[in-house]
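Sharing a chain and its predicted structure for anyone who wants a worked example. Both blocks are below, sequence first, C-alpha coordinates second.
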Amino acid sequence: MADVLRLLLKVAEKAANVARVCRQEAPLFQLLVQEKTGDDKNKKFVQDFKTLADVVIQEMIRHDVGAQFPEMADFIHGEESNKFENGLGESVTVTVCRTEEKTAALLATVLDGDRAAASLLARAIHQDPATVEANTDGLTIPLSPSELAIWIDPIDATSQYIEGREEVLEEGHLSPSGLHCALVLIGVYLRSTGEPVMGVINQPFHHKDPAGGGWRGRHFWGVSCGSINVCSVSRPKDGEDQGLSVVLSSSEKQVVKDALISLCIPDKVMYASGAGYKILCVIQGLADVYILSEGSTFKWDSCAPHALLRALGGGVVDLTKSLQSTSGVQDHAAELTYHQADTECKGADRWANRGGLVAYRDCSKLSGIIAALKGKL
Protein backbone atom coordinates (compact mmCIF):
# COMPACT_ATOMS: atom_id res chain seq x y z
CA MET A 1 0.00 0.00 0.00
CA ALA A 2 3.02 2.28 0.34
CA ASP A 3 3.23 1.96 -3.46
CA VAL A 4 -0.33 3.30 -3.69
CA LEU A 5 0.67 6.31 -1.58
CA ARG A 6 3.71 7.05 -3.74
CA LEU A 7 1.59 6.84 -6.89
CA LEU A 8 -1.07 9.15 -5.43
CA LEU A 9 1.55 11.74 -4.50
CA LYS A 10 2.83 11.59 -8.09
CA VAL A 11 -0.59 11.88 -9.76
CA ALA A 12 -1.60 14.68 -7.38
CA GLU A 13 1.44 16.65 -8.52
CA LYS A 14 0.54 15.93 -12.15
CA ALA A 15 -2.93 17.26 -11.34
CA ALA A 16 -1.41 20.40 -9.82
CA ASN A 17 0.60 20.94 -13.00
CA VAL A 18 -2.58 20.69 -15.10
CA ALA A 19 -4.33 23.18 -12.83
CA ARG A 20 -1.42 25.62 -13.15
CA VAL A 21 -1.22 25.29 -16.95
CA CYS A 22 -4.95 26.00 -17.24
CA ARG A 23 -4.65 29.17 -15.17
CA GLN A 24 -1.47 30.43 -16.78
CA GLU A 25 -2.77 30.21 -20.35
CA ALA A 26 -5.55 32.82 -20.51
CA PRO A 27 -7.02 31.76 -23.90
CA LEU A 28 -7.19 28.17 -22.69
CA PHE A 29 -8.76 29.16 -19.37
CA GLN A 30 -11.52 31.12 -21.08
CA LEU A 31 -12.59 27.92 -22.84
CA LEU A 32 -12.68 25.82 -19.71
CA VAL A 33 -15.67 27.00 -17.74
CA GLN A 34 -19.03 25.35 -18.10
CA GLU A 35 -21.85 25.68 -15.58
CA LYS A 36 -23.19 22.55 -13.93
CA THR A 37 -26.89 21.87 -14.24
CA GLY A 38 -29.53 19.50 -12.89
CA ASP A 39 -28.70 16.90 -10.27
CA ASP A 40 -24.94 17.62 -10.49
CA LYS A 41 -25.39 21.23 -9.34
CA ASN A 42 -24.29 22.09 -5.79
CA LYS A 43 -27.38 23.76 -4.29
CA LYS A 44 -25.26 25.92 -1.99
CA PHE A 45 -24.13 28.24 -4.76
CA VAL A 46 -26.01 30.30 -7.31
CA GLN A 47 -23.29 29.42 -9.79
CA ASP A 48 -21.31 26.20 -9.42
CA PHE A 49 -18.81 25.59 -12.19
CA LYS A 50 -17.43 22.47 -13.73
CA THR A 51 -14.23 23.15 -15.59
CA LEU A 52 -12.53 21.00 -18.12
CA ALA A 53 -9.53 21.14 -15.79
CA ASP A 54 -11.62 19.35 -13.13
CA VAL A 55 -12.67 16.63 -15.55
CA VAL A 56 -9.22 16.17 -17.07
CA ILE A 57 -7.57 15.90 -13.64
CA GLN A 58 -10.14 13.41 -12.41
CA GLU A 59 -9.82 11.20 -15.50
CA MET A 60 -6.01 11.42 -15.44
CA ILE A 61 -5.93 10.19 -11.84
CA ARG A 62 -8.44 7.46 -12.66
CA HIS A 63 -6.36 6.39 -15.67
CA ASP A 64 -2.97 6.37 -13.92
CA VAL A 65 -4.14 4.57 -10.78
CA GLY A 66 -6.17 2.04 -12.76
CA ALA A 67 -3.18 1.32 -15.02
CA GLN A 68 -0.86 0.51 -12.08
CA PHE A 69 -3.50 -1.12 -9.87
CA PRO A 70 -6.15 -2.71 -12.12
CA GLU A 71 -7.98 -4.14 -9.12
CA MET A 72 -8.84 -0.56 -8.08
CA ALA A 73 -10.00 0.65 -11.51
CA ASP A 74 -13.74 0.18 -10.85
CA PHE A 75 -13.51 1.77 -7.39
CA ILE A 76 -12.16 5.21 -8.27
CA HIS A 77 -14.88 7.81 -7.84
CA GLY A 78 -14.85 11.52 -8.58
CA GLU A 79 -16.91 14.65 -8.19
CA GLU A 80 -17.35 15.29 -11.90
CA SER A 81 -19.20 13.73 -14.78
CA ASN A 82 -16.69 13.16 -17.59
CA LYS A 83 -19.19 14.26 -20.24
CA PHE A 84 -18.53 17.73 -21.62
CA GLU A 85 -20.50 19.72 -24.17
CA ASN A 86 -18.65 21.65 -26.85
CA GLY A 87 -19.71 24.81 -28.66
CA LEU A 88 -21.53 22.79 -31.31
CA GLY A 89 -23.73 21.16 -28.68
CA GLU A 90 -21.96 17.81 -29.09
CA SER A 91 -21.51 15.68 -25.97
CA VAL A 92 -17.93 14.44 -25.61
CA THR A 93 -16.80 11.84 -23.06
CA VAL A 94 -13.42 12.99 -21.78
CA THR A 95 -10.89 10.22 -21.16
CA VAL A 96 -7.12 9.96 -21.08
CA CYS A 97 -5.86 8.08 -24.13
CA ARG A 98 -2.80 5.91 -24.49
CA THR A 99 -0.75 8.61 -26.22
CA GLU A 100 -0.44 12.37 -25.87
CA GLU A 101 -1.42 12.83 -29.52
CA LYS A 102 -4.68 10.87 -29.13
CA THR A 103 -5.56 12.73 -25.93
CA ALA A 104 -4.93 16.03 -27.73
CA ALA A 105 -7.19 14.98 -30.60
CA LEU A 106 -10.00 14.10 -28.17
CA LEU A 107 -9.61 17.36 -26.23
CA ALA A 108 -9.69 19.35 -29.48
CA THR A 109 -13.28 18.15 -29.99
CA VAL A 110 -14.17 19.67 -26.60
CA LEU A 111 -12.25 22.86 -27.31
CA ASP A 112 -14.07 23.56 -30.57
CA GLY A 113 -11.11 22.52 -32.69
CA ASP A 114 -8.51 24.59 -30.83
CA ARG A 115 -5.61 22.19 -31.39
CA ALA A 116 -3.00 24.46 -29.82
CA ALA A 117 -4.90 24.60 -26.52
CA ALA A 118 -5.66 20.87 -26.66
CA SER A 119 -1.99 20.02 -27.23
CA LEU A 120 -0.93 22.20 -24.32
CA LEU A 121 -3.37 20.43 -22.01
CA ALA A 122 -2.50 16.95 -23.31
CA ARG A 123 1.20 17.61 -22.72
CA ALA A 124 0.50 18.45 -19.05
CA ILE A 125 -1.62 15.29 -18.69
CA HIS A 126 1.04 12.96 -20.07
CA GLN A 127 4.13 14.63 -18.60
CA ASP A 128 5.48 13.01 -15.45
CA PRO A 129 6.31 15.51 -12.70
CA ALA A 130 9.70 15.91 -11.10
CA THR A 131 10.35 13.60 -8.17
CA VAL A 132 7.89 14.25 -5.35
CA GLU A 133 9.68 14.48 -2.01
CA ALA A 134 7.95 12.34 0.61
CA ASN A 135 9.48 10.35 3.44
CA THR A 136 7.65 7.08 2.80
CA ASP A 137 10.71 4.81 3.02
CA GLY A 138 10.09 1.84 5.29
CA LEU A 139 6.35 2.50 5.49
CA THR A 140 4.53 -0.84 5.55
CA ILE A 141 0.75 -0.90 5.60
CA PRO A 142 -1.09 -4.23 5.96
CA LEU A 143 -3.72 -3.58 3.30
CA SER A 144 -4.15 -4.73 -0.28
CA PRO A 145 -5.23 -2.46 -3.15
CA SER A 146 -8.18 -4.85 -3.65
CA GLU A 147 -9.56 -3.65 -0.29
CA LEU A 148 -9.44 0.03 -1.22
CA ALA A 149 -11.50 2.64 -3.04
CA ILE A 150 -10.78 6.28 -3.87
CA TRP A 151 -12.59 9.62 -3.82
CA ILE A 152 -11.17 12.40 -6.01
CA ASP A 153 -11.93 16.09 -5.75
CA PRO A 154 -9.91 17.33 -8.73
CA ILE A 155 -10.05 21.04 -7.79
CA ASP A 156 -11.73 21.84 -4.49
CA ALA A 157 -12.80 25.51 -4.13
CA THR A 158 -13.40 25.80 -7.87
CA SER A 159 -14.82 29.32 -7.47
CA GLN A 160 -11.52 30.51 -5.97
CA TYR A 161 -9.63 28.76 -8.78
CA ILE A 162 -11.74 30.50 -11.40
CA GLU A 163 -11.58 33.93 -9.73
CA GLY A 164 -7.82 33.57 -9.41
CA ARG A 165 -7.00 36.17 -6.75
CA GLU A 166 -3.35 35.97 -5.76
CA GLU A 167 -3.03 36.34 -1.99
CA VAL A 168 0.31 36.17 -0.18
CA LEU A 169 0.19 33.51 2.51
CA GLU A 170 1.58 34.56 5.87
CA GLU A 171 3.22 31.60 7.62
CA GLY A 172 1.21 30.46 10.63
CA HIS A 173 -1.91 32.39 9.65
CA LEU A 174 -5.13 31.44 7.92
CA SER A 175 -5.89 33.43 4.77
CA PRO A 176 -9.63 33.52 3.96
CA SER A 177 -9.64 33.42 0.17
CA GLY A 178 -7.56 33.26 -2.99
CA LEU A 179 -5.94 30.74 -5.29
CA HIS A 180 -4.24 28.97 -2.37
CA CYS A 181 -7.68 27.67 -1.27
CA ALA A 182 -7.88 25.54 -4.45
CA LEU A 183 -6.69 22.02 -3.61
CA VAL A 184 -6.36 18.61 -5.26
CA LEU A 185 -7.83 16.02 -2.86
CA ILE A 186 -7.37 12.24 -3.18
CA GLY A 187 -8.83 10.14 -0.36
CA VAL A 188 -8.57 6.37 0.06
CA TYR A 189 -11.08 4.39 2.10
CA LEU A 190 -11.88 0.76 2.91
CA ARG A 191 -14.54 -0.67 0.62
CA SER A 192 -15.94 -2.80 3.46
CA THR A 193 -16.40 -0.14 6.15
CA GLY A 194 -15.94 3.24 4.45
CA GLU A 195 -13.19 4.12 6.92
CA PRO A 196 -10.69 6.68 5.50
CA VAL A 197 -7.19 5.21 5.61
CA MET A 198 -5.05 7.43 3.38
CA GLY A 199 -5.17 10.97 2.07
CA VAL A 200 -3.14 13.18 -0.27
CA ILE A 201 -3.68 16.94 -0.48
CA ASN A 202 -1.87 19.03 -3.09
CA GLN A 203 -1.96 22.84 -2.87
CA PRO A 204 -0.94 23.90 -6.42
CA PHE A 205 -0.85 27.65 -5.74
CA HIS A 206 1.13 28.00 -2.52
CA HIS A 207 3.74 30.59 -3.56
CA LYS A 208 5.39 32.10 -6.62
CA ASP A 209 8.93 31.26 -7.63
CA PRO A 210 10.98 34.43 -7.02
CA ALA A 211 13.18 33.62 -10.02
CA GLY A 212 10.71 32.62 -12.73
CA GLY A 213 7.47 33.99 -11.33
CA GLY A 214 5.60 30.73 -11.85
CA TRP A 215 3.41 29.17 -9.19
CA ARG A 216 4.85 26.49 -6.90
CA GLY A 217 2.83 24.15 -4.72
CA ARG A 218 3.23 21.85 -1.77
CA HIS A 219 1.64 18.62 -0.65
CA PHE A 220 0.46 16.88 2.51
CA TRP A 221 -0.27 13.21 3.14
CA GLY A 222 -1.38 10.89 5.91
CA VAL A 223 -2.05 7.22 6.61
CA SER A 224 -4.27 5.90 9.41
CA CYS A 225 -4.64 2.13 9.55
CA GLY A 226 -4.97 0.34 12.86
CA SER A 227 -1.92 1.16 14.96
CA ILE A 228 -0.19 2.86 12.00
CA ASN A 229 -0.70 6.62 12.06
CA VAL A 230 1.76 8.60 9.96
CA CYS A 231 1.35 12.13 8.67
CA SER A 232 3.56 14.62 6.83
CA VAL A 233 2.30 17.27 9.27
CA SER A 234 3.69 17.15 12.81
CA ARG A 235 1.40 16.20 15.66
CA PRO A 236 0.50 19.13 17.91
CA LYS A 237 2.82 19.62 20.86
CA ASP A 238 1.44 19.45 24.37
CA GLY A 239 1.52 22.89 25.85
CA GLU A 240 -0.48 25.66 27.38
CA ASP A 241 -4.07 25.80 26.12
CA GLN A 242 -4.42 29.03 24.17
CA GLY A 243 -8.22 28.79 23.97
CA LEU A 244 -10.49 27.65 21.18
CA SER A 245 -10.23 28.79 17.56
CA VAL A 246 -12.66 27.85 14.79
CA VAL A 247 -12.94 28.30 11.05
CA LEU A 248 -16.34 28.63 9.36
CA SER A 249 -17.97 29.43 6.07
CA SER A 250 -19.02 33.08 5.90
CA SER A 251 -22.55 31.84 5.12
CA GLU A 252 -22.77 29.81 8.34
CA LYS A 253 -25.98 30.20 10.38
CA GLN A 254 -25.98 33.15 12.76
CA VAL A 255 -26.99 30.96 15.70
CA VAL A 256 -23.80 28.93 15.20
CA LYS A 257 -21.65 32.05 14.88
CA ASP A 258 -23.16 33.51 18.08
CA ALA A 259 -22.59 30.30 20.07
CA LEU A 260 -18.95 30.11 18.95
CA ILE A 261 -18.17 33.80 19.48
CA SER A 262 -19.08 33.35 23.14
CA LEU A 263 -16.94 30.21 23.35
CA CYS A 264 -13.80 31.27 21.46
CA ILE A 265 -11.01 33.65 22.32
CA PRO A 266 -11.33 37.09 20.64
CA ASP A 267 -10.66 37.18 16.87
CA LYS A 268 -10.50 33.40 16.68
CA VAL A 269 -13.80 32.84 14.91
CA MET A 270 -12.32 32.89 11.42
CA TYR A 271 -13.72 32.49 7.90
CA ALA A 272 -12.26 30.87 4.79
CA SER A 273 -13.24 29.51 1.38
CA GLY A 274 -13.28 25.87 0.36
CA ALA A 275 -14.22 22.89 2.52
CA GLY A 276 -10.90 21.18 1.82
CA TYR A 277 -8.91 24.30 2.70
CA LYS A 278 -10.83 24.77 5.95
CA ILE A 279 -10.07 21.18 7.00
CA LEU A 280 -6.43 21.72 5.94
CA CYS A 281 -6.35 24.72 8.32
CA VAL A 282 -7.32 22.32 11.13
CA ILE A 283 -4.68 19.80 10.00
CA GLN A 284 -2.03 22.52 10.12
CA GLY A 285 -3.18 23.81 13.50
CA LEU A 286 -4.27 27.21 12.13
CA ALA A 287 -7.69 26.50 13.66
CA ASP A 288 -8.79 23.93 16.25
CA VAL A 289 -12.02 22.96 14.53
CA TYR A 290 -14.04 23.51 11.36
CA ILE A 291 -17.79 23.47 11.82
CA LEU A 292 -20.43 23.32 9.09
CA SER A 293 -24.11 23.02 10.03
CA GLU A 294 -25.35 22.56 6.44
CA GLY A 295 -25.22 19.43 4.31
CA SER A 296 -23.34 21.23 1.54
CA THR A 297 -20.09 19.23 1.53
CA PHE A 298 -19.58 15.87 -0.11
CA LYS A 299 -17.57 12.67 0.35
CA TRP A 300 -14.94 13.87 -2.12
CA ASP A 301 -14.45 17.07 -0.07
CA SER A 302 -13.76 15.36 3.23
CA CYS A 303 -12.27 11.90 2.55
CA ALA A 304 -8.63 12.90 1.96
CA PRO A 305 -8.26 15.45 4.81
CA HIS A 306 -10.22 13.14 7.14
CA ALA A 307 -7.48 10.52 6.78
CA LEU A 308 -4.80 13.07 7.72
CA LEU A 309 -6.77 14.18 10.78
CA ARG A 310 -7.16 10.55 11.90
CA ALA A 311 -3.40 10.11 11.61
CA LEU A 312 -3.01 13.12 13.93
CA GLY A 313 -5.45 11.76 16.51
CA GLY A 314 -8.48 13.74 15.31
CA GLY A 315 -11.29 13.10 12.88
CA VAL A 316 -14.39 14.37 11.10
CA VAL A 317 -17.81 13.71 12.60
CA ASP A 318 -21.39 14.19 11.46
CA LEU A 319 -22.57 17.25 13.42
CA THR A 320 -26.22 16.18 13.62
CA LYS A 321 -25.34 12.67 14.85
CA SER A 322 -22.91 14.11 17.42
CA LEU A 323 -25.56 16.49 18.78
CA GLN A 324 -28.06 13.62 19.05
CA SER A 325 -25.62 11.10 20.54
CA THR A 326 -25.96 9.90 24.12
CA SER A 327 -22.66 8.00 23.92
CA GLY A 328 -20.38 11.02 24.32
CA VAL A 329 -18.61 13.06 21.66
CA GLN A 330 -16.23 10.21 20.74
CA ASP A 331 -19.16 8.12 19.53
CA HIS A 332 -17.63 6.06 16.72
CA ALA A 333 -20.98 5.97 14.90
CA ALA A 334 -20.76 9.74 14.32
CA GLU A 335 -17.50 9.53 12.29
CA LEU A 336 -18.03 10.10 8.59
CA THR A 337 -17.72 7.08 6.30
CA TYR A 338 -17.34 7.02 2.53
CA HIS A 339 -18.74 3.81 1.05
CA GLN A 340 -22.52 4.22 1.08
CA ALA A 341 -24.71 6.54 -0.98
CA ASP A 342 -27.92 8.04 0.37
CA THR A 343 -30.45 6.24 -1.79
CA GLU A 344 -33.18 8.78 -0.93
CA CYS A 345 -31.32 11.48 -2.88
CA LYS A 346 -30.38 12.00 -6.52
CA GLY A 347 -27.22 13.01 -8.36
CA ALA A 348 -24.43 14.55 -6.32
CA ASP A 349 -26.68 14.80 -3.25
CA ARG A 350 -26.44 11.03 -2.80
CA TRP A 351 -22.90 11.63 -1.56
CA ALA A 352 -23.52 14.74 0.56
CA ASN A 353 -22.43 14.93 4.20
CA ARG A 354 -26.04 15.75 4.97
CA GLY A 355 -25.73 16.17 8.74
CA GLY A 356 -23.06 18.84 8.52
CA LEU A 357 -19.65 18.16 10.01
CA VAL A 358 -17.05 19.01 12.60
CA ALA A 359 -13.37 18.49 11.73
CA TYR A 360 -11.02 18.42 14.73
CA ARG A 361 -7.51 17.47 15.84
CA ASP A 362 -8.22 17.26 19.58
CA CYS A 363 -11.16 15.40 21.13
CA SER A 364 -11.32 17.82 24.06
CA LYS A 365 -11.97 20.69 21.62
CA LEU A 366 -14.70 18.66 19.95
CA SER A 367 -16.35 18.11 23.33
CA GLY A 368 -16.61 21.85 23.98
CA ILE A 369 -18.06 22.53 20.53
CA ILE A 370 -20.78 19.89 20.81
CA ALA A 371 -21.72 21.10 24.29
CA ALA A 372 -21.98 24.71 23.06
CA LEU A 373 -24.18 23.80 20.07
CA LYS A 374 -26.55 21.35 21.84
CA GLY A 375 -30.07 22.68 21.72
CA LYS A 376 -29.12 25.44 19.28
CA LEU A 377 -29.68 23.50 16.02
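Comments welcome. The longest helix spans residues 2-24.
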